[in-house]
Each structure stands twice: as C-alpha cells, then as structure tokens.
Amino acid sequence: MWLLQSHTGSTYPMAKLFIVRHGQASFGQANYDQLSGLGWQQARWLGEYFAERELNFHRVVAGDLQRQQDTAKGVLEGMAHAGIDVSTHPGLNEYDGEMMYRAFTGQGDQHLHQKRDFKDYWRTFRAAYEAWIDDRLTDVDETWGDFGQRIEDAISHACEGAGRDDAVLVVTSGGVIGSALTQLVEGPQKGAIHFNFQFRNAAFCEVIMGRSARRVLSFNNVPHLDRPGRRHALTHV
C-alpha cells in the first residue's frame, strides 16, 4: 500500500499516476545516458498523444539522469507545454548496472562484454540482477531494499498533494518501473526483472491512486508508436 502513503501518513484521493520510461538512449556507447534522435522523437510523439487526450499534469517529476530529464522535456514539448517545470527527484534514478555487473563478475568493463558477446552479456547481467535481489552480492553501494525504499519515497513525493482526478507524470527507467509494479501487484521480487526487460522506450503505465486501494490500470502502453510509419520506433534499450 506504500504508493498511497504521504510523508504525513495521509492517503491520496483518486488520482492517476502516469509512469513513463525514458526514450531510446545510447546503448553500447561511451555515454549511454543520452537520448538518441529517435529517443527524442518517441518522447515528443508521446507528448502529442497526451495532448490529444487533453491531459494536463498536476506535477511532472523525473530522475536527474539526462535521459530521464530530456524525455520529460520532450513529452512537454509534444504537448506544447515546454514552459512547465520538471521537478527532479534522484529516487527515480535507475539502479547502477555497472555496480551489479562488477560485484557479480569481478570485472569492471561491461561494454567490452557487450561488444564481444551480446547474448552472453545479457545472460550474465540477468544472473547479476537476480543475485542483487537475493542479497547475494557484496561490495554494493545500494541494496535491493534500499532501491525499493528510494522509489517509494520518490513516488510519494510526486503524488503529494494530488487532488481528486489529478494526473501526475513520472519519468524514470525500466528498473524503477519494474520494482514499482512488482510492489503494486504484490508479486515475487524477481518479477521486477521481467517487468524491467519488457518495458519499451517511451512506454507508459497508468496507476489509479485511491483512498483504500491502488491499481495498475494499464501497462507498457505505446499507442503513440503503434501507428503507420512508426514501427521502427518500437524499441527496448
């Protein structure tokens, strides 16, 4: 029930939370943390879709990673709301994948592994992810429990003060979404990995925030990309 609790212990009225994953970043590049040209376009198309639905957001919050901030800005540009401020909460930042990989393999350069054997890299990374969730990794700066707690705090902050029928936009990353959804559906913790790896770039889910319940209304939505001429924009990394 943590999504319903404010910092003062009160509950939120019926509001709707839109959780968006960032647009396509720069996987395999020296600086992953930047949107590709397609990533920017995905974000703007999402904003245009929100404008078509006549959505107005009570608050827009993103992590402080560049790909998250720029996705939020792209969405607002698409909505013709470029002047709206994007609040920043570091609790929405992605987990440290390099930390997990290093702690699991004892090696420090995952990019070489990606280039050498892409499939083996992902098998290794998933194994590291599972070990992190199981608290089997040592020498990590953030535990799985710490990760979940900061996400809880960030979403509580984003929804603070939201009134009945307000909409809140949160822009974050796949790992954060995976953890949040796992908590919402009260699923097994390793289910977060599945949610994470299936969530598409610039996709969104909707969460109903009620007084006594919270519900996942929709998951991994890309109606703004599922249109003629945009099939190339359905990406995962």
Automatic annotation (TrEMBL):
The active site is at H22, E94. Substrate binds at R67, E94, Y95, D96, G97, E98, M99, M100, Y101. GO terms for cellular component: cytoplasm. InterPro entries: His_Pase_superF_clade-1 (IPR013078), His_PPase_superfam (IPR029033), PGM_Phosphatase (IPR050275). GO terms for molecular function: phosphatase activity. Pfam families: His_Phos_1. It comes from the Bacteria. This is Broad specificity phosphatase PhoE. It comes from Marinobacter segnicrescens.
